[in-house]
Amino acid sequence: MPEKPVINWGLEGVYVNESSICKVDGQNGKLWYRGYKIEDLAKYSNFEEVSYLLLYGKLPTKENLEKFQEKLRSRRDIPDEVLAVIKTMSKRAHPMDVLRTVTSMLSMYDNQVMTRDMALNEDKIITLIAKLSSLTAAIGRIRKGYDYIEPDEKLDHAQNFLYMLHGKKPNDSDRKIIDLMFILHAEHSTNASTFASLVTASTLADVYSSVISGISTLKGPLHGGADEAALKMMYAIGEPDNTEKYILEALDGKQRIMGFGHRVYKVYDPRAKIVREYLEKRLQEKPTEEVRKLLQIALRAEKLMIEKLGNTKGIWPNIDFFAGPLYRSVDIEAELFTPIFVSSRISGWGSHILEYWQNNKLFRPLEWYMGKLDLQYIPIEKRTE
Ligand SMILES: CC(C)(COP(=O)(O)OP(=O)(O)OC[C@H]1O[C@@H](n2cnc3c(N)ncnc32)[C@H](O)[C@@H]1OP(=O)(O)O)[C@@H](O)C(=O)NCCC(=O)NCCS
Question: What's the pTM?
């Protein structure tokens, strides 16, 4: 028997590709998209520009950005059959399940799904960037019993999302919060969902199938689903004074506190810092009782978690922890957080899929077999328990 190899459970510490899209420095809490600091992109850029940057590797000129925005604006519509499925499913299914299903449906309107022409594949990704936000907004609106609102080409990406969700044009402050979250969620190197999309892409399956793998993987609470889970935990805590008791009991019971910890960051997630800053600013600008309470709970939980697990285990808040209260300040419900994440991460998935296809190699890792061999086959009538 050969010697058992070292198994890197969860691929921890394993490099699977080369990329020039994103750098995460987990020891120093830094993040760059195509070489640009996340703090600068959050402050000065917008989601359309960031998507262009991720896809094409450089910031657009004014003219290129306008052309790119024009493409996005003109592709936001939702086909009628897709809308009908949203209407049927939204009464019963979680928005992530609806979004996964209807994203898959979009391949039905594409008669070159399996093309290997990279210009066409790039174009499909741009279409998905435009449509996933519309789908998310429509799902969020229809599940609350409201009528679908058509996209408005005069609005930018974040404005249009809020318009299609809430039925009114947002003010600048609400727009900035959604745009910010779109920017911060757009990319994060080869995380679980990006890896899943690359595994599918590596088989030379199509863009839609690869993106569906990403969506399915993002859903889990250890990954993108943590934002919804973290807010629901804050609701379960209820009052700020309950925070410490709740967290200590959860830790004693070996439960994970959602919105904390990260495979790569062993210090404060730089995106979480940005979200927390915006949340604090937002509360001063538009104070509501719900968000005030959520922020108090979040800050008390953060303090305790850092004391208990920060320096000892490298467990710090991640982007998903403060995201929930910030989304609540724009009146977005918890079940829509991960679909919004999808609507943004499509830019990262798409950029990685195109990059990986330039040097494609089928993903096929090995497993160490632990079972038996050469067992005798027994006919069914002779088998016992
Ligand atoms: C993200 C996550 C899966 C990364 O975990 P990982 O790199 O696989 O690390 P492990 O799951 O092996 O955890 C290492 C240790 O830290 C603990 N830990 C990790 N995250 C924790 C959390 N959120 N709350 C409490 N303990 C946590 C584990 O229990 C484990 O403890 P042990 O060594 O005593 O067994 C993990 O931190 C987690 O579950 N976080 C909560 C979900 C979340 O917020 N996900 C979004 C990430 S952006």
Answer: 0.97
